[in-house]
Amino acid sequence: MVAADKKNIGIIPNLERNIHMNILVINAGSSSIKYKLYDMPSGNVLAKGGAERIGINGSNLVHKVEGRDDYKIDTPMPDHVTAMRLVLGALTDPAHGVIRDMSQIDAVGHRVVHGGQIFSSSVLLDEDARGKIEGLSDLAPLHNPPALMGIEACLHTMPGTPMAAVFDTAFHQTMPDYAYMYALPYEYYTDHRVRRYGMHGTSHKYVSRRAAEILGRDIADLKIVTCHLGNGASIAAVDGGKSVDTSMGLTPLAGIMMGTRCGDVDPAIAQYIMRKTDMDIFAFGDVMNKQSGLLGVSGLSSDMRDITVAAREGNKRAALAQEMFCYQIRKYIGAYAAAMGGLDCVVITAGIGENTPLIRERLAEGMEFLGLSVDSSRNDRPAGDYVVSPDGARCAMVVVATDEERVIALETMELL
What we know:
The chain is α/β, with parallel strands linked by helices. It has helices at residues 80-92, 127-135, 144-157, 177-180, 186-192, 201-215, 268-277, 281-290, 293-298, 304-312, 316-340, 350-355, 357-364, 376-379, 404-415; strands at residues 21-29, 32-40, 44-52, 60-64, 71-74, 107-112, 123-124, 163-167, 223-229, 233-239, 242-246, 345-349, 386-387, 396-399.
């Protein structure tokens, strides 16, 4: 047994020395397919890219190989099967590709958002697994159906190639019932599967283990709060390497405010606003998912970079949005420290977390009682993996560049 490089330690432990595979990772959306081809277990990215605007005018594919010019294709893509053929064509293209033919792709790993209570770990895809994923689509109607389209497209274009599903929800299946249950009639749970599931599990799993490696500690001994701060954002309490609570709930709408999502709000607001504005439930759902969060408060943008610039220039609503974002995260950190009975490390990751030193500094404000602080000389750095807290701090703050696709490749390889 061996971990192929330092980043594999504790993440996927059971890799044989002599195994070598090319793993294609697919993240399919309703009108897109994003992909990365990995050389495993080294984790080197051989190629990556994406097909956009599938089924829409202006379809295109951009294929990237390090050290080469981007390969761009503008052509109609009426469906995911057509898009997948173009992806495979780019990977095997004599001038722009990185493999000879499709036989050099050993397996495909698919990102699937919702595994419900059925899937507590990644699985090899067969007809039974695909049927169960389809049965969970009502829990993630914006995510699971596109993932299935990506799976079906691969099955159509790559028959016989082993495929795996890696679930965003799986890591959080270790939560105890008192953490995942809602105080609603119990029958809603038994009859309709209403409970907290959480998202971004692949990211929370990876960055918590990576932080333990950076600190030179055994993750079994650590109480960690992981903060995945991107346009979608979630917080998780990771005790001894296991998720024991997380901020997102039945859907990705719950938790802290995000780019366009409201996060936790009084549920009676929906009834109140719908009655006042004569709005139906679907329209208000659109408001909560697409018109709220940083965008709704600032009235300016869902992008923290724009918010930061505007706040610096004196825009009060932008400053309010930024302060609300940081305040809500601090509340979750404190709550999860209480839930775990201590706190050894806070991990910051994803687009906002990795690239905005000011946010990391603001998150530590007033948190000295937990032993959490930021060393400004360490904090102002480009994205990467590093400690930003002072030496000897009782609670470390660690920045980790998340790599969900790499974990999908590793888990796919382990399944095989």
